[in-house]
Amino acid sequence: MKKLFIPILVFALVNPLMSQEPEIPVAVETPEAIEAPEPIEAPEAPEAPEAIETEASIGDTVNVIGRVEVIETPEKTRVTLGKNEVIIVEENGDTVIVGLGSKGISIVEDGDGVVINVLDMENKKSPHCSKYKNRFNPHWAGLQVGLNNYVTPDFSLVLPPGEEFMDLNTGTSWCWNINVADFGVGFGTKYVGLASGLGFEFINYNFDGQSGIMKDDITGNIVEYVPDYAGFITKSKMNITYMTVPLLLEFQIPLGGNRIHISGGVLGSLKLWSNTKIKYTEAGDKSKEKNKSDFNLSPIRWGVTAQVGYGGVGVFANYYMTSLFKKGEGPELYPFSLGLAFTF
């Protein structure tokens, strides 16, 4: 690619200089009062300058053709036209970088086809340059949307007697996970590596009954809460926000023009805040009550996570090994969520 591109580029730069016609100077004499000035013959056009070849150093070749200079080395070729410099860098057999001033493009040929990217020549940071072409890019950053629920210690969705007030309306108990950043470390290839990052979980537990939850004033445990003044409860829910950090092992399999990605690992979460909200009707009027508390929720939890997708779309599943509430201060329930993942 490089050997074919350089002669074409040099010809395109030199040809306008060689074919340009010189301006014809006209000498003007002060006319005398009586005699008319005689016509002046135009000088002959100067001959085009001959190409001058010099050898700058061992392994380097310098060609000077008018104002065009070409310097070739095993690593790169530099073409200079006046003050403008065109740089052609061949990092390896399938990558070429062409730049003019501070801007340029990279052309990469690999198993996925030909990729062309605009880059900054001052730092040449492009994910398709040779330096980055084998870089492992994980699939964690993005948006996950799913449904929440929890199970008992024996993995049952049916809650034991006395804990029915924690039953959920699963169809309206949503989670919104915003994973704002990720980074990966490849194992010498762009198809396998470790991934981590930072995200936020916004959990919504929509209770199915005519009640909410509260801390008992005497025991401090989580118990059922029904406001005395409330008539018909139309909605009762608990909202929790967590900050999450994963540690994943990810595999990527090329398929068509994209890749299948499969990842799994552990997930740690830190609780940031929580509240409950009850909407009800009283004498025909709609009202609501909102309470902020820690509700004996486990401040730190950990679990397992998995994700499978193709391109930027996939499915995910999270299951936490830490109980929703602190041990002995609320029902023993283990949260999980399932849904769709959209990666950046």
Summary, kept brief:
5% of the residues lie in helices and 54% in strands. It is mainly beta and 344 residues long.
Verbal overview:
With 344 residues, the chain is mainly beta. It has two domains: 101 residues, no CATH class; 202 residues, no CATH class. The protein is built from one helix and 19 strands. The strands form three sheets. The protein has an eight-stranded antiparallel beta sheet with strand order 1-2-3-4-5-6-7-8, with helices on one face. Strands 9-10-11-14-15-17-18-19 form an eight-stranded antiparallel beta barrel. A two-stranded antiparallel sheet has the order 12-13. It is elongated, with a radius of gyration of 36 Å.
Topology:
Elements: H1 2-19, E1 52-57, E2 60-65, E3 68-72, E4 76-81, E5 84-92, E6 95-100, E7 103-110, E8 113-120, E9 142-151, E10 174-186, E11 192-206, E12 212-215, E13 222-225, E14 232-255, E15 258-282, E16 285-292, E17 300-310, E18 313-320, E19 334-343
Antiparallel strand pairs: 1-2, 2-3, 3-4, 4-5, 5-6, 6-7, 7-8, 9-10, 9-19, 10-11, 11-14, 12-13, 14-15, 15-16, 15-17, 17-18, 18-19
